Amino acid sequence: MENSLSVSNMQDPSSSPSEKQLDSANGNGDLDSEDGSSLEEIGFNWGDYLEETGMRAAPHTSFKHVEISIQSNFQPGMKLEVANKNNPDTYWVATIITTCGQLLLLRYCGYGEDRRADFWCDVVIADLHPVGWCTQNNKVLMPPDAIKEKYTDWTEFLIRDLTGSRTAPANLLEGVCIAILHLLYL
Q1: What is the pLDDT of residues 87-115, one digit of tens each?
Q2: How far apart are CA 1 and CA 46, in angstroms?
Q3: Residue 53: in which H helix or E strand, if any?
């Protein structure tokens, strides 16, 4: 796999530090060059480097966090049930706003477009479940305190909010649990 590496003012190693400094900057913090930049691009090849140095590449198993993030398949807009931050014995429906590897930016349903209460959670350690999990497991589904008074009938609100929405499939969440167990027992 080839990678580009930028190197500034490759100079004779025998030049003094003051000569290098004078050659690389014109006193205004700008690099001297006819083109406005003294950066040169040179090719870098990891395969060649490893061969020349006699080193070995780190195995893919060293990067388990990357495997989990690549395989997560969570998508913005998906709904799931998550523990309330201020009352962890209760749960509420949240929407995935964005993903960043194994991190999800979530917004509790009922906040509309208000981003002030958005929060990040790690799919590996967060208490996340597919929509319907609370009902199946006799857990309390309750809106966060900050929006409790916003609607009089939360059941009706959820029916409207969830109708036509995509829920995070149970197999995604089960896959995360399996990956966690796999990591723990390696």
Answers
A1: 889 999 999 999 887 889 999 999 999 99
A2: 6
A3: helix 46-53
The string of DSSP codes covering 108-137 is ETT-TT--TT-EEEETTTS-EE-TTHHHHT
Return phi, psi of residue 69, to 5°: -65, -40
Contacts 24+ apart (CB under 8 A), 136-139: 139/90, 139/91
Q: What is the pTM of this model?
A: 0.58
User: With b meaning 16 or more CB within 10 Å and e meaning fewer, what string describes 135-160?
Assistant: eeeeeebebbeebeeeeeebeebbee
User: 96 or 6, which is more confident?
Assistant: 96
Q: HSE, CB side, 13 Å, CA atoms: give it for residue 60.
A: 3
38-42, long-range: CB within 8 Å, 24+ apart, which pairs? Answer: 38/8, 38/9, 39/6, 39/7, 39/8, 40/6, 40/7, 40/10, 41/4, 41/5, 41/6, 42/4, 42/5, 42/7
Number of helices (H) and strands (E), helices first, in the chain?
A: 6, 8
The token duo for 152 is 């009089």
Are 92 and 108 within 8 A, CB to CB? yes
Q: How far apart are alpha carbons 41 and 6 in whole angstroms?
A: 5
Radius of gyration of the chain (CA): 26
CA dist., res. 26 & res. 49, Å (int): 34
Burial of 91 (0-12, 13-18, 19+ CB in 10 A): buried
